[in-house]
Amino acid sequence: MDTTLPPDRIGYVINTYPRPSQTFIRREIRALEAAGLTVARFAMRRDDQPVLSAEDQAEADRTEYVLDRGALALGMALIRAVIRHPRSLLRALSAGRRGGPGRGPLRQVIYLAEAAILADRSRQLGLTHLHAHFGTNSADLVRYVRMLGGPGYSVTFHGPEEFDGPHTLLLRDKVAEARFAVAVSAFGRSQLARWAPFDTWDRIKVVHCGIDPSLFAGPVPLPPGPDAHDPLRVVCIGRFAEQKGQVLLIEAMARCTAPVHLTLVGDGPLRAEIQRAIRAYGLDTRVTLAGWQDEAGVRDALSAAHVMAMPSFAEGLPVALMEAMAAGRPCIATLIAGIPELMVDGQTGWLIPAGSEDDLAKALDTAARTPRDQLERMGAAARTRALTRHDIATEAGKLAALFADSRNR
Q1: What residue stretch is flagged as signal peptide (predicted)?
Q2: Which domains, from first to last, does the chain contain?
């Protein structure tokens, strides 16, 4: 008799999906499916931003949105769940009292209602495991599903948000009750170990976010320059948010002595502040705001640049950085979180202290005065390192093995 277990049926749980900044999740899901797993997508809500690409639209079409069911369905699911598992309501209320602002008892009861829907769907679809991305409310949901008799769960913790509020987010409980936990870097694993029980450390694994090597099959040659006729062309890709440091990059641009042009790809809550800084420093002709771009647009922006800048104050391990390196572009980035695990100072680019506009300006000037052939060598080294460490098929294979190994927990 064949005793081989059937392939895992996994439910992926994300608060808002798909989003322009979450292409790595789509790649991970597709790679798992290519490896033979069945993956159901669940999100609590749709993104307010328009879907930019056909790939993301296809993901949206395959995603179940829990809040689309409406308040009545949520309420009825909650009542059924509490009747079957009365202690779950007490645990949700307790979690709310222990949480911080915005995570009180009412919010946790809402999460419990959403989890009741997910528990029902998990049974209907025969799911063997739930995997959440981010240790915030998506991790609350999969934890509550388990309380309601659903499958076991795991969480990929990215940082920095989870590490900023470990007590508010109940990180210790989420890791302790998970079949396993994933960090995207060794640094991230160390931060989880700070708060997780010691006897769970062996279940905290590192699985990198991945890139698709086929999208970076051959690096596009550097644009003309940098020289007396063509400025250094720098691209910065990321959400306009406090942790990303774009305003510091504008300040550094104002201090540069070499000719440099900057393109900012992205958008977000700090857009107005960034625009004010550009005007205040008189950089309107030297800084371009390109808005959000789909994957093809990001690759085009990288192809048009000599160098990628990532002046972050806080990070996990930025996917935009590994994509820039895979595109054969040397990078300027800060010495924080998982970034030094990927970059090698002086070989794949320049690593600088976070928060220093002087060091950032010096790095921009250094890059602008670096001979083109040296930039090409650094870009080639960056490409090799990124493709070696972040192949999505390899990383998804690690995750699939974890799903299989943890099934009986």
Answers
A1: none
A2: 9-210+391-405 (3.40.50.2000), 214-389 (3.40.50.2000)
